[in-house]
Amino acid sequence: MNKTDLVNNISEKSGLAKKDVEAVLNGVLSEITEALSKGDKVQLIGFGTFETRKRSGRTGRNPQSGTPIEIPESTVPAFKAGNKLKEAVN
């Protein structure tokens, strides 16, 4: 399912206009992105938690030449599913 499918499904189930649903969805995603960029957690009880994690620097290898390269430390987004989401999937 992509974003368009999600907007269409929510619109059909809620009776709201597609443009309204898309505006709300874009707002939610924007707020989650902004919070993560500040280093905050976004916790949706029962659904899951969006957070950032530090990935330490390491030595990798260039696949073409085999020479070692240094991969710098980075911060990556992560999602941990909540209990209700886990139960619904199983």
TrEMBL record:
<dbReference type="Pfam" id="PF00216">
    <property type="entry name" value="Bac_DNA_binding"/>
</dbReference>
<keyword id="KW-0226">DNA condensation</keyword>
<dbReference type="InterPro" id="IPR000119">
    <property type="entry name" value="Hist_DNA-bd"/>
</dbReference>
<keyword id="KW-0238">DNA-binding</keyword>
<dbReference type="GO" id="GO:0003677">
    <property type="term" value="F:DNA binding"/>
</dbReference>
<feature type="region of interest" description="Disordered">
    <location>
        <begin position="53"/>
        <end position="77"/>
    </location>
</feature>
<protein>
    <submittedName>
        <fullName>HU family DNA-binding protein</fullName>
    </submittedName>
</protein>
<comment type="similarity">
    <text>Belongs to the bacterial histone-like protein family.</text>
</comment>
<dbReference type="InterPro" id="IPR010992">
    <property type="entry name" value="IHF-like_DNA-bd_dom_sf"/>
</dbReference>
